[in-house]
# Entry
Amino acid sequence: MTTTESNAPSDTTNPTMTELRRRLGQVSDLGAAEAVMSWEQETSMPDEAARVRGLQLATLAGLTHELFTDAKTGELLDAAEPEAAQDTTDAAIVRVARRDFEKATKLPTEFVEEQTRAQNEAHHAWLAARKGSDFATFAPYLEKMMDLARREADLRGYDEHPYDALLDQYEPGMRVGTVKTIFADLRDRTLPLVQRITAAGDAADYSVLTRPFPAEAQKAFAWKLAGEAFGLHGTFARQDESAHPFMTNFSRSDLRITTRVEPYWPACLFGTWHETGHAMYERGVSERWERTPVSGGASLGVHESQSRLFENLLARSLPFWNRYFSQLQTAAPEVTAGLDAPALYRAVNRVSPSLIRVEADEVTYNFHIMLRFELELALLEGKLKVSELPEAWNAKMQEYLGLTPPDDAQGVLQDVHWSAGLIGYFPTYTLGNLLSVQLLEAAQQDSAIDEGVQNADYAPLLAWLTENVHQYGRSLTPTQITEGATGRPLSADPYVAYLHRKYGEIYGLEDVKD
Amino acid sequence: MTTTESNAPSDTTNPTMTELRRRLGQVSDLGAAEAVMSWEQETSMPDEAARVRGLQLATLAGLTHELFTDAKTGELLDAAEPEAAQDTTDAAIVRVARRDFEKATKLPTEFVEEQTRAQNEAHHAWLAARKGSDFATFAPYLEKMMDLARREADLRGYDEHPYDALLDQYEPGMRVGTVKTIFADLRDRTLPLVQRITAAGDAADYSVLTRPFPAEAQKAFAWKLAGEAFGLHGTFARQDESAHPFMTNFSRSDLRITTRVEPYWPACLFGTWHETGHAMYERGVSERWERTPVSGGASLGVHESQSRLFENLLARSLPFWNRYFSQLQTAAPEVTAGLDAPALYRAVNRVSPSLIRVEADEVTYNFHIMLRFELELALLEGKLKVSELPEAWNAKMQEYLGLTPPDDAQGVLQDVHWSAGLIGYFPTYTLGNLLSVQLLEAAQQDSAIDEGVQNADYAPLLAWLTENVHQYGRSLTPTQITEGATGRPLSADPYVAYLHRKYGEIYGLEDVKD
# Structure
């Protein structure tokens, strides 16, 4: 897959296609308006504005859905299809728009409304339950979420397993059987590593990770390197603060990342570079897909592969710190006092089984995901009752990470996803982790890219990612992208080997074998 | 007009009214989305995002217009009207929505499209012409603007004068005859004052106005007093920077003001308090009009009366500086060194005929407006040719202010309005100035308000403005508001008397009589 496709928007002369593109452009613009208002809500909106902003956002979501699912869209798709086939750009737009249209029109309005109401109620119940660490009050809402998920799967349709219908929303084409196979392989080959590291003990000094690093200096340093190392610049991007970090974008020239500043300063730095990975994906999507449904990332997993690649494979590497340690010294002299690049590299790569997913390291993170995947699958299949969930959660935490949560707030109630009806979402985090290494290794087959990575010069790598992943937007499936870019299907092999290589060395486990 | 109306939204049970309100709410929400995206564009958007943002804004404007002018809106208005009459809130909503609907549907789509294209072209031609101070290249575009204005007036319809149809867009109910009468009175009674002040000479030291005042300190001081003196707080408002200061809002609990920092620091301070006046108007509009076309100010003139009241009548008064001078000393010690409150008051009330409208003082400002009003009226009537405009402009500048612009960039080309097709807009600035004094004097009939104003305690005044002006939104016409609040029609008398009183004293013209 080495063809570089033209960046020029397709010069459509087919009048039906023009009308279809006009409508899809309106849908895209309404989506952008909603995204701007949501971003603004998280970054700068005055508190009292929240109530009306909620109504405004609901209107935009409703009008977008109405416009897109209108029968006229279906007619335009039918009418445009034959002529669109003459042009690869038009053909991809029609193909992706039709896929979206069919998905969007499969759920009756009454069902969507019931789901929205129930999710809203479940979310509020979850907030209260987490606060009081009281799973029992959340249980009936989770049962309702599972019931809705089963009904949604039936409405959407599936060949083998209802979970597939849900997973497909986030990872088009992925199947539960594939996830199970890959996850089992990953689990069997990394659980011994976790146990070895835990058993080895860890005498390193991690107090450096909370040394004084003023808030403005954290943000400025993270943003400076987002530009210098990874190519995210103020001419087409902004950095802001928000309670929960995220990336959003309103076009490929309008990227927004947010960060949060904490005493534990790696949260801001690596969080910023994580969002930078997401942003550079959107930046690399070809302009030919602008204001069409083909813009955006191929899937949550492919998106996560980019954020994790930047955050972990690059920014948590020794070459990165060899190159940028002196800048950190300038930005944060108190942090770096008495340290050198290898010592900093060592500190930001601590492995330690922990209770909370979002705080987990590269080695233990995927166990948090596997646990959630296994449990939500059992719930959906009816093999596990909601009432049995906390016990099952804690048992798996003990099995995988040797820990038992002191309460449900730090256990089964920690994540927002289930309360928001996001069943089938969790696996994409680990799929992204796996893909990140598989992609990087494929890119490093090119010696110029490999040399760049060894010297923390990422321009050649970025060009490869743009050519092999980013530019396609949603015109290719995750499988097509994975196989096109790496020559083989997604596998746990590269990730397992990477963990053993990196952490075997860090923890001096010289006999560790994958 | 002392009835305090309930703030509670109307509890509508009429199903047609409910459907109408739903549609009007959607129109309002789309307008809010457009406003958020426009505000964001001016305050924080990355440069490269501009092109796509323009397309997104055009889509929102188009969809808003389409939704509002759809035949269904007219049907709902017809159907809702009889039952709406039972409820004052519903009746006002239907009345204002119908007025807007009829205006919006009077212009054929082809005309609006032609107008939009021509305005866009004229705006770019104006930018280039102003840069090169070359009126001749802008002349054909201005001719086109005047031609479109005449056609628009014919399409909108009018009883006596085509100018009325244009003016009515900005100042509902105002007529060119009334403007002429009021302006002639104002001109005849203030031109001698300008001439007396100019003749008297001015030995005051104005270097204080450009003494060092760091940018962040300017903004912080302006914002602090916007809250402390005028009631604009961060829980429902924000201050940002932009190239041209403005106020916008997305609900009455989501107000945004922008400012610009210059070496001439009064621009930031008084500019902020000007926008604060606009913001507090929107803040005071009753919640009952939320997400309906009745929200917002009654007219540009009434809006300007509030901004000018805050900026000039309050913030450029001696009591204001008596109260807040010590805070300015803390915020800007270099500015205030060797000064006291009366000296500062004196400095920020300099009268000096100047070429540029937006830099003009309270005494000369209205001559800039009268000049523009007279010229655009003559152009519309065909009594003045576009080619004769620069000469006519310069002659009037000499007549009113004793100045001749050195070039057209500092003369006839200085303002954006005509290039944007805004014919009939200028008078509202002066109408607002006049109304500001008429309102303040009416309020000061109440001794508690008067005492507050003398001590720069504006809470009683603000309550009066909310009750007599703000709360009504667009449910009353400017005339109804003016007469209801002040007991008489708009007149130049209070403003003329105010100028003579204030500037007679400042310039020691003790024999000056109105």
User: Anything to note?
Assistant: Residues 15-106 of chain B form one domain. Residues 15-43 of chain B form the longest helix (29 residues). The longest strand of chain B covers residues 254-259. Chain B has a mean pLDDT of 95.
